[in-house]
Amino acid sequence: DRTGGTVDVVAVAEPPEPLPGSLPGPATVTTKTARIADLAFAPGRGTPVIEGSSLQAPSVAPLVSAASGTLVLASGRDERTWSTVQEGGPTAGTAPTGPADGTLVRDTFDRAAVGTAIPTSWYGDRDGPAAAEVTEDPGGGRQLLLTNRDGGDATATCRAVPVTGAPVTVAALVRVEGVGTADTRLLTVKGPEGTLASLRLTRKGLVGYSSPAGRIDHAPLAPGDLRVSVRVDPARGVTDLLVALADGTPVLDLRDVPALSPAGEGPDEVCAAPPPGVPGATLAVRDLTVTPA
Q: What's the pTM value of the predicted model, to 2 decimals?
């Protein structure tokens, strides 16, 4: 805070050791303030700013943990705001170097233990827990496996992403095991005023997407490993949509599709869901990135 002549330092403390069979609790986030002139911080724990509670802002993660990435605290004269960015990262034991391409989000799930019910920063889009679990990826590494446990209209699993106001590309590697009785949501990108774009696999085995004119079915698409991406240009209010096979062969590749709702400052949330209407049907998110377009 140059106006006030101070600097804030933020620390994320490890949560208490969970009981066997339970999930880790939220960590405590504390801050200390010193004058820029001497940078002398008082000893001790610091002042808690987030202590065992969820964040309420719609564009940030719902929970901060000691492994959730970088916490950014913007301090001004009258208010403080906080958000988490750059979820995921290198596998434990490697030296973090930081992304050189300005990556905003990179989730490979390699830092989460197998069996983790749902990683920090991911959550269900309805009341109650999402049916998601970190599992071994048959192709190597780990994945977030979304399962339709009861055969209903499966709850989507979502992740908040930083809002930049600039064009960004949301890209994911997904593995879908079959079709459902209605559309499977391969990748849905949302903004503060609603859904911006949605890529789908229809019950007829066609790749589809949502447009202002309604849902549009495009071409046959076999379940399996897919590359999906949505580029959002907030200033122009348009999106670029891509669905490709694992080898990169495009099945759907569209430019300048109008966003479904006002783009505002761009996307703040991404979601995916397993096939609806089929008990045990799964969709795996193997890699998620959000990068400047």
A: 0.67
